[in-house]
Amino acid sequence: MRIRADTIPSEKKKTQVLCAFCFEDENTPIGLGKFNKKIDQIVSQSVKEIKGKKNKIAIIHSHKDIPAERVLIAGIGKKNKITSDVIRDVAGNITKKIYDLGIKEFTIIVPNKSSIKTSQTISAIVEGANLSLYDFDLFRKEKSNKNQPDLSLLTSEKNAQNIIKNSIIVSDAVKFTRDVANLPPNECPPAKLGEIAKKIANQNKMKCTVFSKNEIKSKGFGGVTAVGQGSKNEPRFIILEYRNGKKEQKPILLVGKAVTFDTGGISLKPGEKMDEMKFDKCGGCTVLGVMKAISELKLPINVVAIVPSVENMPDGESFRPGDIIKLFNGKTAEILNTDAEGRLILADGLGYGIKHYQPSVVMDFATLTGACIVALGTNVAGIVSNNSKLSSKVKSSSERTSEEVWELPLNDDYMDMVKSKVADIKNLGIGRAAGTITAAAFLANSVGNVPWVHFDIAGTAWIQPSTKSKSYNAHGATGFGVRLVVDYLTNQR
Ligand code: BES
Ligand code: MN
Ligand code: ZN
Fold first, then answer.
1. Rounded to whole angstroms, how far apart are CA atoms 443 and 258?
2. Does the pTM exceed 0.90?
3. Angle formed by the axes of helices 84-100 and 118-132, to 10°?
4. Which one of 3.40.50.2300, 3.40.220.10, 3.30.470.20, 3.30.420.100 gives the CATH number of domain 3-154?
5. Residue 493 — very low, low, confident or very high, per pLDDT cuts 50/70/90?
6. Which of 47, 248, 320, 387 is the most buried (most CB within 10 A)?
């Protein structure tokens, strides 16, 4: 989608559709100037009809009375409830409407009358517009039309063009994450993720290393080896390095779970909805999307990404409940359920990343526990951290991007719940108690004292029946986390 900034007054703008936002119970659309008596009257009648209610839209034909062929008024709800996400959602709905009408070009007046910073408003409009037409059509004969409309944003913000450019990079990275996450498991074994990582590395001057099955085994990645050994599709351990900060500056480490399909292994899952376990690679896909975005944004920082990738299958060579394996950090883990596989591969990723790169901060992303959906539902991701300064920064990024998170506690009592009688730790907690936290407690054994935050995106990584509908999300993967983490990394300095 092509989007550009323009400073022309709205009354003079030549466009097919001139769009303005309108608060609930306010009479005038924000930033929409006066035209002539006739048009002004029709506008004010339409405003009364939709009452500025969120996501309600009115379209007026001007019959060439004014430079704009049509005026579109979009309700954004009550003023005291305005957030950048309302703008993102409504901008997406406007774009879908324009697209459905087959219109090739439209204009949105950037509101400057709200409590949100203009730069954030512009980003939200660009993201909403760009993401709203996303459709995963790779395997369909009937493709969605790639003929997307052009958009101009009317604003006096001096930096608008730059903000637009960056927001397109970020939302394109979200679409990239969705594209990879939506790949079906037969088309996306771990080796394919390795190839995709190499491709974005080459495009954006990053270093990419992919360890093969034999290297994974010989380097001591006991978790990845165990989980991956039941599948004909060999595991991969993917490392991406982006270095654009000071040489002596320690990197930030991102680790993402990429189970290309999770059957549960020998502790086989029930059949219902098992197809959704193609999305068990979403943590890894989010990390890849973040790396694509930051390398295109050329952020002046150092970041290392690690994506351990396996397929969890039942087989004669599968690992079993009862096995004791050795993780990369040297700790032994008793396997009590082969379906609690994510923590095993993440433990190797965290252990290796921390040992080799001495990061200043570590973040991991995983569709780790069904318990997270029970606790928080499908609109909020769980976070667990060992550092309150870091988690509060994450919460700020969450608020700015409206990718919602809620912190769960971690203390020694939870750490005790993953101690084993026969090994150092075990891959289950006690019964169903605090399943999201005991999974994080397992990971904490591979983290130590480095500031760390764990994201459990089991509920938010793809659209589920209880997911709140948003114009900028589409059936399938959401790309959750990319916008939040890019915001965090952007505000590092
Ligand atoms: N990938 C699943 C978690 C999951 C399940 C995410 C459903 C989203 C929707 C994970 O590997 C898993 O199976 N976790 C188990 C852990 C349990 C065996 C301790 C779970 O949540 O049931
Ligand atoms: Mn599992
Ligand atoms: Zn899993």
1. 15
2. yes
3. 40
4. 3.40.220.10
5. low
6. 47
